[in-house]
Amino acid sequence: MKQLFTLVAFFFCTGLLAATGSADDIVGIWLSSNGQGKIQIYKEGDQYFGKLYWMKEPNGPKGNPKLDVNNPDPSLRNKPLLGSVILKHFKYDDGEWSGGRIYDPQNGKEYKSYIKLKDAQTLSLRGYIGISLLGRTEVWKRAG
User: Fold this and answer.
1) Contact between residue 127 and residue 136 where contact means Cβ atoms under 8 Å apart
2) Does the pLDDT at position 6 exceed 50?
3) Lesser CB count within 10 Å: N end or C end of the chain?
């Protein structure tokens, strides 16, 4: 009986270690929850960032690139959205990427944020104001 308990405990602990994965597991291309954009998450030093890699409709009505017209900084409103860094300064700690900020180009606001992997193909992002209870969660799927 003692051997059985030890064996079960061993598999449980090794399963937990395998489930936590590594910090670089979020690196790659992710499809946004609305399917309108793909975000490339990459690492610089010990921090993670994400830039708008692809847009379903990258151009406006006259064929010009869509611009960051809602940016609170007037000098950035003429900058194309495609290629914009929308995830900034995330650090990995104990299965979560936190301490970062997410920019929503639809309203020009930036929010505190954290990221968790639900599984290898699914990312959960929580953006919030003040405390995480006051926010919104999005689920992104790995794209490719």
Assistant:
1) yes
2) no
3) N
Q: State residue 20's pLDDT score.
A: 56
Report the Cα 87 to chain-centroid distance in Å: 7
Encoded tokens for 141: 């799927």
Residues in the chain: 144
Among 9-13, 24-28, 87-91, the minimum mean pLDDT is found in 9-13
Look up residue 82 and give its DSSP letter.
T
- DSSP string for 38-49: EEEEEEETTEEE
Could you give the C-alpha distances from 30 to 26, 52, 106, 121, in angstroms and in order? 9, 10, 18, 9
Tell me which CATH code domain 2-142 carries: 2.40.128.520
Residue 76 CB contacts under 8 Å (≥ 6 apart), including other chains: 68
Percent with pLDDT over 90 in the chain: 78
